[in-house]
Structure prediction request, 191 residues.
Amino acid sequence: MSIRLFNNSGGYIDLESGGTSAAANVFTLPAETGTILTSATTSGINASALSAGTLAAARLPAGSVLQVVQYTYNTEFSTTSNTFANMGLGGAITPTSASSKILILYSVGYLCQDGNLAGIRLLREATAIKTSIRAASRDHASYFHNLCLDSPNTTSSTTYTVQSNKNTGNAFLTCWNSEQPSTMILMEIAA
Prediction:
């Protein structure tokens, strides 16, 4: 069975049930004036009218933060080697788009002796993408803060790792207690 609605120009629209079930299907019209949305008009929906659900990443503007993950490390690591080694701080993120960028923010608790240099290196998988040297003007504990904007060009899980070395002298890096851990934040940014 169908219902035919005529317009003032002689055209019409047929309303037909597409179901094959013998059960009753009820379509309730709201008590409001407006236009029924179709696949041709949904692109014009104002995001401020949405009260539930999520927007697809493809609909978000460039620069939008698509996801954030955080990792902490609070176990002491020390080295007297010139060779870079994993200090335990690192984590993975899976980009939703190959064009996304990953913003890596990392903060490392460190201690090194007066006049010595410690190296800190950031890796994407096995590739070094940023290397920094941290100097000590006196024996002290502090934080080393850094960031890097990376373009991994993948939708596969990608691991970022912080390494350290003794650049000169008897330097070492450490997180000196659980109240002041080293941290890493990975943010996917829409391209």
